[in-house]
């Protein structure tokens, strides 16, 4: 799970990545994972430009490429499309500074992964596609909004070299070496958490054994699935928009 499977592919243009930022926001909205307050970012390769989806008040299921903010990695706004600035933009600039191998960051306000944090339960891999979580999900033990540099640095330190971090009583952050990897991890982070919560209600969640989880993580993480997953949710998100039903059913 270290190297990017897309590394051999051509470097995408900023225009293409703007489109991906908007699409990713719409797909996570469809899943119910981004809520009113979450956002996603993609770094433009070989630059310090961070593309960031808009903040609260925007219609997360109908984001257009021209709605995307451009931040400098140090926090200056380079392009302001006119909507609300995501209040917690420092989550993205800080992690992109601290983790240069990471090209995409999602800040989720997803129900089940947040519930586990509230219950004081670690997120552990409980099913095949959540197996990548076997490397561990640390907890940032602070429910506050991330609105200053010290908070952002503390959250990024809690994330460390991991793929995700819980924010107790608030949400989570998930990262990837490409947008497709961050989307894969975000999708199955919340799906795994949902299964874990529901299994706990049934009497107890059975985590994958370490050797099972390592095998499953290798078996499920491949470029083909990354493309299939993205395409599947992109079609659903665009269909929902065409049907004028961009909000997830669970809302
Ligand atoms: Zn938040």
From TrEMBL:
What Gene3D superfamilies does this protein map onto?
Class II aldolase/adducin N-terminal domain
Q: Which SMART domains match?
A: Aldolase_II
- What residues does the Class II aldolase/adducin N-terminal domain cover? 19-197
Q: Which InterPro entries match?
A: Aldolase_class_II_sugar_metab, Aldolase_II/adducin_N, Aldolase_II/adducin_N_sf
- Entry annotated with the keyword Metal-binding: yes
Q: Which Pfam families match?
A: Aldolase_II
Q: Which UniProt keywords apply?
A: Lyase, Metal-binding
SUPFAM superfamilies the UniProt entry points to: AraD/HMP-PK domain-like (SSF53639)
- Protein name per the record: Class II aldolase/adducin family protein
Lineage here is: Bacteria, Pseudomonadati, Pseudomonadota, Gammaproteobacteria, Lysobacterales
């Amino acid at each position: 799970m270290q190297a990017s499977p897309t590394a051999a592919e051509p470097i995408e243009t900023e225009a293409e990545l703007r489109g991906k930022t908007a699409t990713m926001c719409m797909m996570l909205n469809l899943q119910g994972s981004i809520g009113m307050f979450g956002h996603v970012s993609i770094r433009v390769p070989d630059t310090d430009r961070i593309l960031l989806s808009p903040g609260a008040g925007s219609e997360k299921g109908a984001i257009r490429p021209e709605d995307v903010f451009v931040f400098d990695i140090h926090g200056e706004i380079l392009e302001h499309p006119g909507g609300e600035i995501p209040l917690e933009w420092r989550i993205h600039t800080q992690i992109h500074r601290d983790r240069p191998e990471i090209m995409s960051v999602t800040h989720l306000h997803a129900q089940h992964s947040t519930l586990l944090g509230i219950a004081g339960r670690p997120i552990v891999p409980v099913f095949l596609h959540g197996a990548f979580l076997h490397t561990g999900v640390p907890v940032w033990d602070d429910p506050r909004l991330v609105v200053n540099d010290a908070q952002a640095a503390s959250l990024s330190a809690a994330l460390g070299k991991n793929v995700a971090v819980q924010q107790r009583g608030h949400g989570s952050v998930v990262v990837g070496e490409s947008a497709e990897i961050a989307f894969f991890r975000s999708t199955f982070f919340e799906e795994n958490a949902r299964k874990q919560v529901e299994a706990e209600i049934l009497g107890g969640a059975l985590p994958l054994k370490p050797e099972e989880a390592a095998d499953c993580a290798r078996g499920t993480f491949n470029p083909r699935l990354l493309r299939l997953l993205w395409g599947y949710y992109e079609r659903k998100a665009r269909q929902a928009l065409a049907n004028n039903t961009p909000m997830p059913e669970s809302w």
